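User: Could you go from structure to sequence for me? I need the amino acid at each position, not a summary. Structure tokens:
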């Protein structure tokens, strides 16, 4: 172990936990002074792509009357500006501290809505299943009155559970703070910080049947836990992402395919860029992180610049991340992978340029190093300094590209064409990653 490298890691951790704060005066009805001081922390200089240019400060400049303590969906909407339909354009600097559990299915009067409350009167799942059964309808996309009613039902749920976030916003959680049954939509809202929150069960009441998705069709869901679109300078830090007691593995099977009610944990799409995701914990989920909207060459080219460091990917199945177009720096993450349904870790998509350095892969039975990469139409990925712990053998270095190429055609190239410069410190050697990530990644692991 090189002292200089380890020292750099300690510097990085110190900067992470003691980031600079803006001057403020705590409002009498706001969060406690110590909590507000923490909530005004900004992204450390040099900490990934979100530190490019002016950096990311979120709501650090908020006036005292723009510091809010929220305990319900209605509180959260009010703190973000007052009208969920227009809050995405509210650029007033604001700090929002979440206390307890905020449920996206809660009505303004506090009572919880169910899927039946949000369904269009002309929609029902039994009728949908009967109408679009491939044995009856065929393998073509659903159309007609029932599909239109499902789409209207989705619009109803979107108005309820998709919470729109405006620019210059910080949302942080007190110990145990949870956002359940909702999507934080960061769309056209640059300079946003999201920290110390547990995101739980952002379920879709009305999944779509897509018979042309794959060889036998798939059910697809609408809602991510955090969605970043058309935005820059976003820092997502020390959060936990989970499906809680409602995993997709427990859902029924319809048309021979799992009825999947969840989408991504943290998707970065639609020309978004300059995002840093650090010290997050992703646990027990299927689809995690999609970077890039589609394979169409267009506005995403030159965008989608994302840094992922010191995250824990724990018993998760795919998109860790899946990358299109962007320069994505993936370093010092711990991949703790297991399960028969594991698909792949890092998806190498069209014109992607991922740089994968000093990550540690703990692999369960049946998962081999040659399955950690997946070719989604890309040509090259840089991998260096990564280690694998598999097959009850001693941990060892692994060349991810060589392992992939040994069993797959066509080969992937080993040079993504760029070298990251925005890092708060030198990456620690891969064997040390579990010691750094395990105790610190996830919500509730920051000092108050």
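Assistant: Here is the amino acid at each position, in order:
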């Amino acid at each position: 172990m090189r002292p200089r490298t380890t020292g750099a890691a300690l510097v990085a951790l110190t900067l992470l936990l003691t980031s600079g704060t803006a001057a403020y005066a705590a409002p009498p009805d706001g969060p406690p002074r110590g909590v507000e001081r923490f909530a005004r922390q900004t992204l450390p200089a040099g900490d990934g792509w979100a530190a490019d240019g002016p950096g990311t400060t979120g709501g650090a400049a908020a006036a005292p009357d723009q510091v809010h303590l929220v305990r319900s969906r209605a509180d959260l909407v009010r703190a973000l500006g007052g009208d969920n339909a227009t809050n995405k354009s509210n650029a007033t600097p604001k700090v929002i501290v979440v206390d307890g559990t905020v449920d996206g299915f809660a009505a303004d009067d506090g009572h919880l809505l169910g899927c039946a409350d949000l369904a269009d009167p002309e929609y029902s799942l039994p009728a949908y299943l009967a109408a679009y059964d491939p044995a009856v309808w065929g393998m073509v996309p659903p159309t007609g009155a029932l599909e239109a009613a499902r789409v209207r039902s989705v619009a109803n749920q979107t108005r309820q559970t998709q919470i729109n976030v405006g620019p210059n916003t910080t949302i942080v959680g007190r110990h145990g703070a949870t956002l359940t049954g909702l999507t934080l939509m960061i769309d056209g809202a640059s300079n946003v910080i999201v920290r110390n929150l547990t995101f739980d069960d952002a379920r879709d009441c009305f999944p779509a049947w897509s018979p042309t998705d794959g060889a036998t069709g798939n059910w697809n869901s609408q809602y991510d836990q955090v969605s970043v679109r058309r935005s820059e300078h976003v820092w997502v830090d020390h959060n936990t992402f989970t499906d809680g007691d409602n995993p997709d593995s427990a859902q029924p099977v319809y048309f021979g395919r799992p009825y999947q009610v969840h989408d991504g944990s943290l998707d970065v799409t639609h020309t978004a860029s300059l995002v840093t995701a650090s010290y997050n914990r992703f646990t027990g989920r299927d689809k995690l992180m999609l970077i890039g909207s589609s394979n169409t060459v267009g506005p995403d080219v030159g965008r989608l610049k994302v840094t992922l460091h010191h995250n824990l990917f724990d018993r998760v199945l795919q998109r860790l991340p899946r990358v299109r177009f962007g320069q994505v720096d993936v370093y010092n993450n711990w991949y703790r992978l297991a399960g028969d349904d594991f698909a792949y870790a890092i998806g190498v998509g069209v014109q992607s340029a991922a740089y994968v350095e000093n990550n540690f892969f703990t692999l369960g039975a049946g998962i081999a190093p040659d399955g950690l990469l997946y070719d989604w139409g890309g040509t090259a990925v840089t991998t260096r300094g990564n280690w694998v712990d598999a097959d009850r053998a001693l941990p060892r270095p692994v060349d991810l590209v060589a392992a992939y190429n040994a069993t797959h055609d066509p080969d992937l190239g080993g040079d993504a064409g760029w070298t990251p410069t925005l890092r708060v410190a030198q990456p620690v050697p891969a064997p040390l990653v579990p010691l750094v990530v395990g105790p610190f990644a996830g919500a509730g692991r920051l000092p108050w």
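One structural detail worth keeping in mind: The chain has a mean pLDDT of 93.
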